[in-house]
Amino acid sequence: LPNHIETERLLIRPHRPGDGRAVFEATVESLAELRRWPAAMGWALEEPSEEQSEAFCRQCAQDFAARREFPLLLTDKASGEIVGSSGLHRPDWSVPKLEIGWWVRTGRGGRGLVTEGARAGPRHGRRAGDRGVRVRPSGRAAHLRPAGRRERRQLPGLRAHRHAVRGAASQ
Q1: The pTM is what?
Q2: DSSP, residue by residue, 85-128
């Protein structure tokens, strides 16, 4: 697996020890938006701390190294600022398949960064031996669906699966 992915505007990379403060700042800025999606972002319901964010980054680095999960940070290539988080989750190596998830920093939304990152994620998954990536935005996260739909049209092996989230179906 590569240790980073570059797109036109993003450097997408695994979390590292020492990322906690920057992850904390991005999370705090985005809490109100993240808390709108408790089924998908339940972790955001708790009050974050810099210490918890650092522990989270260290765990993410361990999970990535062990191939249990592939959490990724989306950073602005020019400034280094964390603009969001993504990841390839719930690997099932018997298929093989992964799911993609993401959130974008509140101040950086609406600029196509999720789409740019979503295009790069499946390429990363295929390098890991994946044959398909599931796009599963929260049932009420209608604003996230366009990125998923665009990617299903453009990338072979990318597919959506219906699932229930708090009684609402999504694609």
Answers
A1: 0.72
A2: EEEEEEEETTTTEEEEEEEE-GGGTTSSHHHHHHHHHHHHHHHT
Distance of CA 110 to the CA centre of its chain: 16
| pLDDT tens per residue, range 99-137 | 878 899 999 999 999 888 877 755 555 555 545 555 555
Angle, alpha carbons 127-65-24 (nearest 5°)? 105
Dump pLDDT digits (tens) for 136-148. Answer: 554 444 444 455 4
Contacts by residues 44-49 (CB-CB < 8 Å, ≥ 24 positions apart):
48/24, 49/24
The answer to whether the CB of 71 falls within 8 A of the CB of 99 is no
> What is the bridge-based pairing of β-strands 5-6 and 10-14?
antiparallel
